[in-house]
Input
Amino acid sequence: MKPNKTNIHPYDYIIIGAGASGPIVAKSLASDGYSVLMLEAGLGVDPEDDDVWDPQRWFKVQEDPVIEWGYRSTKQENLNGRTLNMMQSRCLGGCTIHNAMVYVRGGQTTYNYWEQSLGCTGWGYDDLKPLFEGTEQTIGILKGESDAFVEAVFQAAKNNGLPYNADYNTNPTEHGCVPFEFTIEVDGKSMRRTTSYEKYIGAKGKVKNLTIEPGAFVHRILFAKEKRAGKIQANGIRYQNRFGDLKTEYVNKEVILSAGSIASPKILLQSGVGPRDDLEKLGIEVIKDLPAVGKNFYDDLGLPTAFIQKQTLPRQPYGFVTSGIFATDKPDFDPQKPRYADVNMEIQICTSDLPGSPQIGIPYYSIGMAAMHLKSRGTISLSSNDPREAPVVDPNYLSNPEDIKQCIFALKLALNIAWDVALEDWRCFPVLPTAFPLPKAGGGWDWHWLGIEKTFDEYLENYIRNTAVTIQHYIGTCSMGTDAQSSVVSPDLKVHGISGLRVIDASVAPTPITGNTAGVSYVIGAKGAQLLKASK
Ligand SMILES: Cc1cc2nc3c(=O)[nH]c(=O)nc-3n(C[C@H](O)[C@H](O)[C@H](O)COP(=O)(O)OP(=O)(O)OC[C@H]3O[C@@H](n4cnc5c(N)ncnc54)[C@H](O)[C@@H]3O)c2cc1C
Output
């Protein structure tokens, strides 16, 4: 593909969103000589602000109301009517500015499933591997170092049947325990968060052929009025700049949506691309009836536990404790033959000495379980045809009855590890949940709990419904696939039935990956850049 010399507008490409994926696409297109405009609703962050860049302060940056979109879920019927804070960052860097920096590619079997079972040609692990390696080299990945507490956690995991895994990112299976990798770099004596924005674009935002406009809130995508032979062509965008002025910008080649799993479907819907009935009810002109826009919203579910420390824990320079643990609830699991979604739980440990973390007046650590590959799916929809209104976010957690069983299994595993003898020197007493094991005559444990429930499973089910939280691994709302009924984009990330419009961000992931979602967002950015390079 060569830059167009007969351009009539200032920009060949317009990219919406400068989060994890957008900057990778922007840098690639600009380096190929195209003129690119990248619009980001948020502003820049101070490259010297330790509250942003010091990995230990990741709770602090989440408190910043300027960069938080402030989305809340609808009442979650299966979480006892609770509404959850669905965090999303609004700034140059997107969610990589306030995420927890754990780096996980996401499981080789996940990507092979996309290619082999969903027809997403070119998305198998072997195709993506060089792209993972390339983004990792540019963004910078740090392998966490173990310490006495981490070793005790790993021993507890081993006592519960989880083997040591030399490398969860490059081994065929993630199953087992090994220190986490992080999107962190060592800067002199201190550590610093890395983001694709800083590494691909640079803090000063100076890249030849690339114009970055922060504070630009995109309302909708525009389409060529003339629908020749039913052809629909995206040709520009309407946005509000940081001074509140409404602006229109047209494009020579393509509009690229990289606004993340909540905002990308929202912008499509506001632009008239989505389920016909929903759009017509809100008085939005239907440009393209695409039923899958905003459907298939997926998030892992977080199951918390917390324990008062018996002794001071080693300092945790990475934010999270570096004890990476991935596990399966499949009784027939064969580590030699991993298949899609065999590994479906990840344990993340955090300590209360991190600035901004929830305090209870006494030091504690939490052993959180992320239940992954759940079956429930939710939606992103609109409440009004006003683009300034927040979208309706309904994750629909635990709507599939299979999921609560998996969550109970996952929480039991976390509790068994937490209460293992290997952690006796570190654990004092539990804060959450208030369940504890006592030795059983003849060996083993009996669980006891403070509650009226008759069985332990019943107790855990109520506990999960009362305390489960989002893990902020949103994907799937503009999912990739081969047909326009069940998916939004084709495997080359073009919106079905529309020319000049692609989605390149976490929202295109058709099924959950096995792990945290920044890695997959980076690789989607790199794959999108590769596809754009190859087209025409
Ligand atoms: C609190 C938190 C912790 C997390 N921890 C981890 C972790 O430890 N490890 C991990 O791998 N993943 C983690 N994640 C998830 C990961 O960061 C995201 O999956 C990833 O950043 C998604 O990338 P993206 O490019 O799809 O979207 P984003 O990074 O969200 O970027 C989208 C960008 O688009 C902009 N935008 C949205 N709407 C508009 C509009 N209308 N006009 C203009 N711009 C717009 C947004 O402001 C944002 O900057 C975490 C997420 C959160 C919220």
User: Anything to note?
Assistant: The first helix runs from residue 22 to 31. DSSP finds twelve helices and 27 strands in the chain.
